[in-house]
Amino acid sequence: MAVIVAVALVVAACGRSPSAGPSSTAAPSTVPTTTAVATTTAPDPDGEPPVLLRRSQVTWETYAFELSPFNTIVPGSYDGVTRTTHTFDTWILENEHLEVTLVPEYGGRILSIVSKSTGHEQLYRNPLGVPYQIDTGVFYFNWLMVYGGIFPTFPEPEHGKTWFLPWDFEVLEESDDAVTVAMSFVDDKLYPFVPKQYRSRASGLEVTFTITLRAGRAALDTSVVIRNPTDDVVSFEYWTNATLAPGSDPADPKVTRDAEIVAPVDSITIPAFWSEIAAVEQQAGADDVYRFDRLRRFENWVDRGIAYAWPDMRGTTFWGVVDQGTGEGIFRIGDGSVTPGLKIWTWGHPQTDGLDPFAAPNEARPYIELWAGLTREFFERTEIGPGREIRIDAVYAPTVGLSAVTHATEDVLVDLRADDGAVHATVFGLMPGAEMSAVLTADGVVVAEEELVVDAVAAGEIVSSTLAAAPGEIRLVLRDASGGVVLDGRLDLESGS
Prior knowledge:
This protein has helices at about 275-280, 350, and strands spanning about 5-10, 40, 50-65, 85-95, 100-105, 110-115, 120-125, 130, 150-155, 170-175, 180-185, 205-215, 220-225, 235, 240-250, 260, 265-270, 290, 305-310, 320-325, 330-335, 340-345, 370-375, 380-385, 390-400, 405-410, 410-420, 420-430, 435-440, 445-455, 465, 475-480, 485-490. It is an all-beta fold. The strands form five sheets. Strands 2, 3, 4, 5, 6, 7, 8, 9, 15, 17, 18, 19, 22 and 23 form a 14-stranded mixed sheet that branches. The chain has an eight-stranded antiparallel sheet with strand order 10-11-12-13-25-21-20-16, with no helix packed on it.
């Protein structure tokens, strides 16, 4: 079994609610059961192991309740005691590096990404769903319930109105080299009874969430296409919610106190009503703007809360979460100018540390949500013209051995830094076995050159001779076997950019 590895360069010198079904009391279970139905391809002994696509099922336990025709919870139907199980059809995409589970019928979500290099889960999956904020006016249907994974939210803010509705599923490509599938939804649903901050009308928008897994690639390639087939300009809001728990036991996914948010963000805004977490950081300028320092670490989230990247994510290409205890992470790589919004949410470390989800109907759970949005904050809308479409491309990549990231492309993630009198470049490739050449320079002078193979065992290290003085700028250029530039990353050590 191949294992992804990070290659280090070091230079010495001076980062789904299920609709309510029949109520039944079920025994607690934290492990969703998965049953394979069919395998569509067979191993190819003469080439790369093929990409597999198969149907399966997953069971999920929730507290029982009933839904009205308008998807609100029927008064008195939820008692916080009775539990029920739900079975969903799933599709599993698998290659030699990843096993990915999709649940189209519950919000069009990626429920699980398991890295075969470690056997660990990267996404959070709730073992017991608890409906909360019932009839408080906070969410579109006047309640919410967390399942987990990665899923689109639109056309309204705060999880939108499609997070638990069924999406259509289609296989677009199925070969040994790649499998591409699509989950799609047409917003033709009118819900007249929604809280006043939301729009009840149907937007008419068509959203397609496309997922591709390629042979030999230790990353998942995705796109979200939002189309406006109407004759009107449509005002809407769109976010992709990623519920993260990298390096987890697949039977019990959760983040630990060592989880850290890794993003090229110096400042955040914290709404005034989250005063407990705001008190953790130092104010920076305007009343609601703070340094992004201590809240990078999950252990410092003393309470639940929201933070947004300030001023936005334009000019950036990545964000993710790393468990600094295990060295495992999960990153989203995408164009920050397309999705300038980064919204951060956790339930807080003290509230979830050691939490038994089956002990009482408590909705808090141990995960970190990172959201990629077309706008900077919730309740900021954008517009799409008649016949127009918006495309959001993103790569989701599990990592091993990266404690930080300074540069990222769709093929590599790099931590380029200077500390302890040395310059370091740690490279994590997303095509294990690929050959690359690396050139590291300091103030224009080549200080290290190496031919690299993205390997499966351990990080490699290169040490150059000591430099006469600390450089002002360091640069790493990575090329593939044909000479094409994979990454050209620079770091100004004086400005830190």
